[in-house]
Amino acid sequence: MPGIFCFQNCFTYFYFVEIIRLIPLVGFLLFCLQIGIRAFVLQRKGTRLSARKKHSSKGISTVLLIAFFLVFTNELVYKAGLIHISILPEVLRPLLTGKIILTISGIVLILLSNLFMLLTLRALKQSLRFGLNKENLGKLVTSGIYAWSRNPFFLAINCLFVGISLVFPTPFFITISLLTLVSIHLFILKEERFMHKNYGEEYKNYAKTVRRYF
Question: GO biological process: any one (predicted)?
């Protein structure tokens, strides 16, 4: 009986660990899927989402985005144990710590990121835009989740990448997380200047009552 009980405990623990390893991958793909589906639906309705001019080429930024998505997804699949090949060098792959509190915190952030994105896309409706273009302005959204955060879209992205880096604290994921936090903050500062210039008093009054992040 003790042997059977021990075996059951070991099996339960192993099963739990396997589920934990899958959460970052599933969370990341679900996050991207939410954005992709909403973008597809809006484009089918004739909404122009990109800040680029109509006849401009997508260029190197799209290539880099696709490359990043493939590398990042490959590493998540590798860490989930679904494949045994990683395209990253060994120095970027080892876990720097394995504390359970970090793992739990990471899972919570990943779940919150998907919830935030769901609420954000629901609030944006037809106003979803990628980039800054004064000739392609959407309606200034101040309701829903935007009533307590001016940047829930970016807050969701930050939660996702920080969450993944807590579940898998490798040099690669930690570096990506830090770069994401810095680059998004810099873009938000740029976006705020754009919003003040193009939305005027409406955005100024909104910014007085709602914080940048939360």
Answer: methylation
